[in-house]
Design a protein that fits this description.
There is one protein chain. By secondary structure, the protein is α/β, with parallel strands linked by helices. The chain has a single domain (about 5-200), classed as Rossmann fold, CATH 3.40.50.300. About 55% of the residues lie in helices and about 10% in strands. The chain is built from nine helices and five strands, in the order E-H-E-H-H-H-H-E-E-H-H-H-E-H. The chain has helices spanning about 20-30, 35-45, 50-60, 70-80, 85-105, 140-150, 155-165, 165-175, 185-200; strands at about 10, 35, 115, 130-135, 175-180. A five-stranded parallel β-sheet has the order 2-3-1-4-5, with helices on both faces. Helix 2 (about 35-45) crosses helix 5 and helix 4 (about 70-80) packs across helix 5 (about 85-105). The longest helix is centred in the middle third of the chain and has 24 residues, at about 85-105.
Length: about 200
């Protein structure tokens, strides 16, 4: 089976929506191959990779940790303050991340594979998928969860939300939606039901 023949489900949602919890259920309970775009975004800027040197050349050593690795928090603070810098960074990294994603998805052995990405819509990564699954929560709940989880100020969370696709835009691309405004059991039940639907799709039913 080639990459183009595979059933790829794109899983997305804003910060604090519960993407990781949904992906973990697909992977751990059902054995589905999960490719996480966030992890790939870290791989392409590892020490020794050309992209890291280009970032340092543009932003200076202030975006490096003491061990020479990327200080993602420092870089995030810089680019979210200046939209042009964020666009430059995205133009550098998105093609590299896409290459890593395609390679990983092509190795999947489960009936379908899951591409998890907070920027699935904005980056155009949804074009690699056959269906888009959105984990949806009200914005107030996103902010409350993220500030508690990451111990960051509310204004920083709002800046990240502003940079991500708006909730309505994500939902416009969605084929399937998980409402994650209740407990973990409710999330798991929705994942389990969708898994059965995706298995049927993978069989061509």
């Amino acid at each position: 089976m080639t990459f183009s023949d595979r059933l790829i489900i794109g899983l997305t949602g804003g910060i604090g929506s519960g993407k990781s919890a949904a992906a973990a259920r697909f992977e751990q309970a059902h054995g589905i191959h999960v490719v996480d775009a966030d992890i790939k975004s870290r791989v392409v800027v590892e020490p020794g990779r050309p992209a890291l040197q280009m970032i340092v050349d543009r932003f200076g050593d202030a975006v490096l940790q003491a061990d020479g690795s990327l200080n993602r928090a420092a870089l995030r603070e810089r680019v979210f303050q200046v939209p042009d810098e964020r666009r430059w960074l995205e133009q550098l990294l998105h093609p590299l991340i896409r290459e890593e994603i395609v390679t990983d998805l092509a190795s999947a052995r489960s009936p379908y594979a899951l591409l998890v990405s907070p920027l699935l819509v904005e980056s155009g990564q949804y074009q690699m998928t056959r269906r888009v699954l959105v984990v949806d929560v009200p914005e107030a709940l996103q902010i409350a969860r993220t500030t508690a989880r990451d111990n960051v100020p509310e204004d920083q969370v709002r800046a990240i939300l502003k940079a991500q696709a708006q909730r309505e835009e994500r939902l416009r691309h969605a084929h399937d939606v998980i409402a994650n405004d209740r407990d973990l059991a409710a999330l798991h039940a929705q994942v389990d039901a969708l898994h059965q639907q995706y298995l049927a799709l993978a069989r061509g039913e």
